[in-house]
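seq as requested:
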Amino acid sequence: MKRIVWTFGLIAGAVLAVMMVVTVPFMDTLGSDRAEVIGYTTMVVAFLMIYFGIRSYRDNVLDGEIRFGRGFQVGILIALIASACYVVTWEVIYYTTAPDFVERYASTALEKVRASGATEAQLAAKEAEMARFAELYRNPLFNVGITFLEVFPVGLIVALISAAVLSRRSTSRLGQATAG
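C-alpha cells:
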C-alpha cells in the first residue's frame, strides 16, 4: 500500500505544485475570482489521483475487492501527501517571491467590499478583519494551517466519493452474506 499511496500522492502533489508555481505570478492579472476557479479546478483534477490510487490498490493488491474503509484509508493518505506538497510549495513561494501576498489579498477584499456599496462602518470592519488576518498569517503555523485547510477538504471529499464508488466485494461473498 505504501508504494501506491506515495506514488499517487506525489503525482497529485506535483500537479498542485506545478499549477501553483505557474499561476501565482499571474494572480493580479487573472483576478482573484478567476484564480480561485483555476485553483480549485486544479485541485479536483489533481485529486483524481485518489480515484486511480484506490483503483490500483484494489485491482493490483487486493485482487479486485476493496471495502469502503480500506479504500478511504488509501484515499485519505494520498490526499495528505498531496496536501503536504501543496503546503510546502506555498510556503516556499510565500517566503521567497510573494511576501506581499497578504497585503494584496487584503486590498482585493477591501475593493470587493467597497464595490458592493458598503458603508464606512462596513469598510472599517473589513479593514480591521484584514489587519487581524495579516497579523495571524505572519505566524508560520497559522500560515501552514490555513494553506492546508484550503486544499485538504477537496481531497477529503474526493477520497470519500472514490472509496464509495470503488468499494466492491466479490460476488461469492455477497452470495454467502445473503444466504446466511
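Confidence is low (pLDDT under 50) at residues 174-180.
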